[in-house]
Amino acid sequence: MSPVRTEIESERPAALNPHKRAARPRILAICTLDVMAWKLLLPWLRGLREAGYEVHVACAKAGYFDQLAADGFHMHEVPLRRRMNPLVHIAPLWALYRTIRRGHFEVVNAHSPIAAAVGRVAAWLARAPVVVYTVHGFYFHDDMPGWKRRGYITLEWLLGRTTDRFMFVSDEDRKVALREGIAKDAAAVTTIYNGVDLAAYPPKGETLSTSAELRARLDIPQGAPVVGIVGRVVREKGYLEFAEMAKRVSASRSDVHFLVVGDALPSDRDGIVAELRSCVDAAGLRDRFRFTGFTDGVAEYLAVMDIFVLPSYREGFPRSVLEAMSTALPVVATNIRGCREAVVNGETGFIVPPRNGKALADAVSHLLENPELANRMGSAGRERAERLYSHKLVQSRFVDVVESAILKQKS
Predict the structure, then answer these.
(1) Residue 271 pLDDT > 80, yes or no?
(2) Is residue 9 over pLDDT 70?
């Protein structure tokens, strides 16, 4: 794996020390939904605030808007939607343009493909002084038809002309951005990775009593192996392959249970929830599947699992994998960008081909039959998370990129 690129290795410039600022600089973070800001961006947003920024967030409401406001962030409701129809983005484009013009922000920081596209156009129109794009994963991927992939790359290339700095959660994406010319200056790109709160996701051996209580509530026998997945219930997360894996594993193991932590958002339109449950019922596994829906208690459910699986088709750098590694779980993930960076094949888990339920089942079965190997992989994953992915370390990288972008603009 390539080393983390941090162009700023020294302490933060004195000019940006919060104790020496005459006024608090303003930054606007743009993402599609408030759930992303609360679940994924919160450590970074808090890091900016701790560094002396006045932090504003523009997004659509989906249940966490008031919590973000109560946490001290200035919230702007913008009707962003996960749709590819350009017409639905006219209203949010106008709303973001007005927000940026009125807010006099020193930095506009965009997240997620659609919000970043609309947000960067609005920032360009509003002549925002600094535009930073945090790339959580490009929309295009290796499994996409060539013509379609090229179209999205061209769009990202055009948007790249409006972007002052890029930060990536995947180093593979950083390399792609430079190779395709999406980012034209190597000095303006940084890989920060995603981070995990190691204290919030302790090794599962440290939470045995709590896990036993949760198993009882879930009606999972104590000692029964649990294979789990965490994430939005959408097709690209590989849930149908997860169901096929469960069917294959259950053909030879009648004691294994399967835990699905997540659900579909109102904006998720592929209808996979009903299809997944239908597959589970058709396989005769309803009594061995548990569906939790969305929850703030992900750490507790991870501690119930013995193996974590993420059979995605597309990722940036999956935080769920880092949380599983922090919990000292072996991970079975697909051979896609992000996953193959986080998981060391044969050391912290296994990497298998995407869209391949049999390969997924073979890897899971191997871990079930070799619990000592599974434990070694889990311990190695925890060590790797401690060394590379502490949220405090990643938070510092994030703030450094923003501050260096401001310095460059002022120089």
Answers:
(1) no
(2) no
d(C-alpha 119, C-alpha 204), whole Å? 40
Residues 65-81: tens digit of each pLDDT? 999 999 999 999 999 98
Distance from C-alpha of 335 to C-alpha of 232, rounded to nearest angstrom: 19
* Residue 5 maps to a domain: no
Does residue 344 lie within any of the structural domains?
A: yes
Taking Cα atoms as reference points, which of 354, 325, 329, 355 lies closest to residue 198?
325
For 268, how many CA atoms within 13 A lie in the half-sphere containing its CB? 16
Helix (H) or strand (E) holding 113: helix 113-125
Q: Which two tokens stand for residue 32?
A: 């599609």
- List the one residue out of 295, 315, 242, 238 whose CA is nearest residue 270: 238
Question: What domain range is 158 assigned to?
Answer: 14-195+390-410
Residues 275 and 394 in one domain: no
Percentage of the chain modeled with pLDDT above 90: 82
- Cβ contact 402:109 at 8 Å: yes
199 Cβ partners below 8 Å, 6+ apart? none
37 within a domain of the structure (yes/no):
yes
Q: What is the mean pLDDT of residues 15-26?
A: 56
- Smallest Cα–Cα separation from 406: which of 164, 187, 43, 168? 164
Q: How confident is the model at residue 23 (pLDDT cuts 50, 70, 90)?
A: low
pLDDT band for position 2 (cuts 50, 70, 90): very low
Beta strands in 87-200 (DSSP E): 107-111, 131-135, 165-168, 189-191
- Secondary structure (3-state) at 166: strand
Contact (CB, 8 A) for 167 and 192:
yes
- Distance separating the N- and C-terminal Cα atoms of the chain: 34
Per-residue pLDDT reduced to its tens digit, 314-344: 888 899 999 999 999 999 999 998 899 999 9
Residues 126 and 138 reside in one and the same domain: yes
Residue 322 included in any domain: yes
Tokens 């060391």 locate to: 344
- The full DSSP string for 266-315 is TT--S-HHHHHHHHHHHTT-GGGEEE--S-S-HHHHHHH-SEEEE--S--
The count of domains in the chain is 2
CATH label of the domain that carries residue 88: 3.40.50.2000
